[in-house]
Each structure stands twice: as structure tokens, then as C-alpha cells.
Design goal:
The chain is an alpha+beta fold. Helices cover 40% and strands 25% of the residues. It has twelve helices and 18 strands. The chain has helices spanning 2-7, 16-32, 62-71, 94-125, 129-155, 164-185, 193-214, 224-252, 384-389, 416-422, 462-467, 482-499, and strands at residues 36-41, 47-51, 54-59, 80-82, 257-268, 275-285, 291-303, 317-322, 331-332, 337-346, 356-367, 371-372, 382-383, 403-413, 425-432, 439-445, 471-474, 478-481. The strands form four sheets. Strands 7, 8, 9, 11, 17 and 18 form a six-stranded antiparallel β-sheet that branches.
């Protein structure tokens, strides 16, 4: 023990004054040496730099970092605290970043222009209140996409705006929903250039949205979950209510058109021996939907009493037929009424083998809130004789047999979005005089399509006709005994002859 104590150096314990002085010296060294921290890279390759906890800016390369250190008066070998990667991690790629930002900006501009155009047209020209409100909504969506195009430049450059990322994300969502809506409206329609654009932007927005979600583009927002719930839930509730009251209910409401015929007075012409019968024809819109009257027809038939029917053609004979709603294509608003008195001539009534004569009407109407019929529809009428004089033969594949005349024109849909997805449509209305029951045939089709007629169902493409609310309105029939009319005409003629000498 004594030997060991002699050879070991003695250690004098440090007193309290000496320890305090050592701590001050160490604190002075730390105060003189600044602490430099470099954070992890963000989505654009920027790394936040801090000196003693104070931000010194963002850098994308070691050269930029050394420039910041020199400006702060620190040597190049100064110790650095690295977060999220050491001095070899610099993911910045200027060319790729700027190219992506340019593509996103350009990708927003075309959908924005399309949405603004659709919204501008529909907000003023849509045929329904719901359509105009949808137009304002689409226009607002177009403005958001236009702002997103500008935000894309900032988001893929310096990200100086806090909300640029969430604005870009909102624009991507609108483009995705708009493209999806276009494709859904294209179901059952012809594939066109708008369909190809919709597919392109649907895929592009899905890819861009995935990348934005991975990079957490909404990081600039405070409480993004609460904001999303607060914006989405009321919007969905208001949208459902609006869609039901302003779109669904009017869409499923059917037009209510009433039509009838009534026999009035009858008179006999002594010179010609013909009997003249006045028929009162009537049509009224009893519903809430305005309609276009594409064509009208009335028939006067003679035959056995209570046996006049289209199913038993051998028992009746056509006396006269004609049109009673003119001009063709006129609008019949709710509550509006059309009346027409037609005078029918019956030759040799004494020899006519009729028990009764019958009058009936028929109209073809289409909903005014689902299509727009141009003003030139009335002037588009052309008769078979006019075509024959011009040397134009009726194509049996496109025209029904025994056509007397036809009206045809292009039609536009109820909104601009439907015009884009469906394209132009063509409507043709024929008056066919064949047999004892003349008729009206209607076809709605894309221009240039060949129309094939079925005698049992002469309408082309029922799904196209249903979407425009085409309705065949068969009026109530009026039947009266022929002998009563003949006796009435004789009494009228006799009374006229008795009064004549007094005059």
C-alpha cells in the first residue's frame, strides 16, 4: 500500500472556484461557435438552413450552403448538424421541376377555357333554371382551374405562396370530376374529340392527384380536415336538394296536352248538292311544361256507328284530313289554348252510305326544356311535288312511302354541355298520306345517319326520342250520326230558302 502510494501521481481535488471558471470558459467557446443546422429536403429539393435557431434561407446545393456560411462569417469546414440526409443529399432537378410545372400549367389552361365557355353559355342560354345555375357553377369551377394554372407555376418553382399546393390540388380534383362527367354523359353517344380529351385529362388528373397527395400538397393549410368537412358536407346537401327540386322533379314531370274535336253546324249547297260540316278542333297545354308542336293532323271518317277503328280498316272511309295547328313548330306554353274551325265538304251526301261520321285529332309535341328548335323549322317545309320538280327523288331508305311533305332542321340540346357530348342532332317530321289513316312520322338522329322505317314503329332510335320528351297526343274522338247532320243541313237549307222571299 505504501509503495503504491509513492509511485502514483497525486490528484488534487478541484475546488468550487476552479470548476465555475472551467464552465465559463466552455460556455464562451460555445457562444463563439455558432450552431448550423440543415433540414431535410422538401418536394422541390429545398433544404432549410438555420444558424443558432434562426432561419438563414433555403439551399439546393452545397455551393449555396457555403455561400450562406461565408455571408455569416463562418469557415468552410464549420461543423453542421444534418437532418434528413448528409451533405451528399441534394435532390434538386431544375429541368425536371420546371418542365413538370409547365406541363401542369398548360394542362390546366385547356380545361379552364372549356369550363369557362360552357359556364358562360349555359348561365345565360340554358333552357331551365337548374341548367343556368349549373352554368354559373361550371363557370366558377373554370375560374378555380384558371387560378390553379397560375398556382402551379409557384408550386413547382419557389412555393412562396402558402396555399399554392392546395389550389393546384383543387384544380386537379375539378378537372378529374369534369372529365368523368363528360365520359358518363358520353355513354350511349358517339365517340368524338371531346371524348378523347376527357379520357386524356381523366388519366392525367388521376396521375397528378396521386403525386400531390403523396407530397401532401395541403401542408400549407391549418386544420385541413375541418376545412374539407366544413366545405364538402354543406355543398353536398345543397347540391342534392337543388338536383331534386330543380332538375329531377321537372325532368320526370310529363307534359299534359289535351286535344279534341267537335261537330258544329251543317249546311247543304243546293247548286252543287254538297254538304258542308263545321268541325271545331281544340288543343290545350294543361301541364307545366312548354312544348313545341312539331306537327298536327285531324281526320274525318265515315262508316258504321261505333265501329270506326284503325284495327278494322275495311269498315271506314277517309273523308278529309288536314293540319290544324299552324305554323309547324310553334310553342304551346302552359295554359295556352289553340282552336281551329275547319269546314268539311261531303259530296253527294244523299248517296253516302254512312251511319256516322267521326272526327279525331293527333299532335306530336316535344319538350321545350330539353331542346331548342330553330326559327327556320317552319320555313323548312318542302313538298313531294317540289322535290319532284327539282329532280330530287325521295330515298326509300330515308323517307317513308307516300310522303306528302316534310319539315327538317338541326336542333340544339338544352345546355352547352349536352351539345358538346351529344353533338348536333337532326329532326325530320314527315306527313304521310297513305290509306285511310294518314299519319305523321318523326325521326331524331345525328346528321347523316341512315334512317330505316318500321311500319309498326316508324320512329327512328327510340332512346333519342325519349330524351327529348317526344309525345304522341291522340285527341278524344267525336262521333255523330250522319242522318242527323243531313237532316240539319236540309233544315238549314230550307230555312234559308223560306227567308229569301221576305228579303
Amino acid at each position: 500500500m505504501s509503495s503504491f502510494a509513492l509511485h502514483c501521481p497525486s490528484r488534487t481535488p478541484m475546488g468550487a472556484p476552479e470548476a465555475a471558471a472551467a464552465d465559463k470558459r466552455q460556455a464562451g467557446v460555445m457562444a463563439i461557435t455558432p450552431e448550423v443546422t440543415v433540414g431535410p429536403p422538401d418536394g422541390l429539393g429545398w433544404r432549410q438552413t438555420a444558424i443558432n435557431g434562426n432561419s438563414a434561407g433555403k439551399v439546393r446545393s452545397s455551393e449555396e450552403l457555403q455561400r450562406i456560411l461565408r455571408d455569416a462569417g463562418l469557415p468552410s469546414g464549420h461543423p453542421i448538424h444534418w437532418l434528413g440526409g448528409d451533405e451528399t443529399v441534394w435532390p434538386h432537378n431544375t429541368v425536371q421541376r420546371r418542365l413538370l410545372g409547365t406541363i401542369m400549367c398548360a394542362g390546366f389552361l385547356l380545361p379552364a377555357c372549356l369550363l369557362l365557355r360552357i359556364g358562360w353559355v349555359d348561365s345565360g342560354d340554358a333552357l331551365t333554371f337548374g341548367g343556368r345555375l349549373a352554368g354559373f357553377t361550371v363557370f366558377a369551377a373554370g375560374l378555380v382551374v384558371l387560378v390553379a394554372a397560375l398556382a402551379a407555376v409557384d408550386y413547382w418553382h419557389k412555393r412562396e405562396r402558402r396555399y399554392s399546393g392546395v389550389t393546384v390540388l383543387a384544380g386537379v380534383v375539378i378537372v378529374f370530376l369534369g372529365s368523368l362527367s363528360l365520359l358518363l354523359l358520353q355513354i350511349g353517344e358517339r365517340f368524338n374529340r371531346w371524348s378523347a380529351l376527357a379520357v386524356f385529362f381523366l388519366v392525367g388528373s388521376a396521375v397528378a392527384g396521386t403525386g400531390l397527395i403523396k407530397s401532401r400538397a395541403w401542408k400549407g393549410l391549418r386544420n385541413p380536415g375541418r376545412i374539407a368537412v366544413g366545405a364538402i358536407v354543406p355543398t353536398l346537401l345543397a347540391g342534392v336538394n337543388l338536383a331534386y327540386t330543380q332538375i329531377y322533379v321537372p325532368y320526370v314531370t310529363n307534359p299534359l296536352i289535351m286535344s279534341s274535336a267537335e261537330f258544329k253546324e251543317a249546311s247543304l249547297d243546293r247548286k252543287s248538292g254538297a254538304m258542308y260540316v263545321t268541325v271545331h278542333l281544340h288543343a290545350k297545354n294543361e301541364g307545366q311544361i312548354p312544348v313545341y308542336v312539331l306537327g298536327s293532323i285531324y281526320w274525318i271518317h265515315g262508316g258504321p256507328a261505333n265501329a270506326l277503328s284503325e284495327d278494322r280498316p275495311q269498315q271506314y272511309r277517309l273523308i278529309f284530313d288536314g293540319e290544324f295547328v299552324t305554323p309547324a313548330g310553334r310553342v304551346l306554353d302552359p295554359g295556352e289554348e289553340i282552336t281551329h274551325d275547319a269546314v268539311i265538304e261531303i259530296q253527294n251526301p244523299e248517296k253516302a252510305n254512312y251511319e256516322a261520321i267521326r272526327a279525331q285529332t293527333e299532335l306530336y309535341v316535344v319538350r321545350k326544356d330539353r331542346m331548342k328548335l330553330p326559327a327556320n323549322y317552319e320555313q323548312s317545309r318542302v313538298t313531294a311535288e317540289e322535290l319532284e320538280r327539282k329532280g330530287i327523288a325521295l330515298d326509300p331508305r330515308r323517307e317513308p312511302e307516300s310522303t306528302k311533305y316534310k319539315n327538317e332542321s338541326q336542333i340544339s340540346n338544352s345546355s352547352e354541355i349536352l351539345n358538346i357530348t351529344r353533338g348536333l342532332q337532326h329532326i325530320t317530321v314527315w306527313r304521310v298520306s297513305k290509306g285511310e289513316w294518314s299519319r305523321i312520322d318523326v325521326a331524331i338522329s345525328p346528321p347523316g345517319n341512315t334512317i330505316t322505317f318500321d311500319p309498326k314503329f316508324p320512329h327512328y332510335s327510340p332512346e333519342l326520342i325519349d330524351r327529348y320528351g317526344l309525345t304522341r297526343v291522340r285527341g278524344s274522338a267525336a262521333e255523330t250520326p250522319f242522318k242527323e247532320l243531313l237532316e240539319e243541313s236540309r233544315s238549314t237549307e230550307k230555312g234559308a230558302s223560306e227567308e229569301k222571299p221576305d228579303k
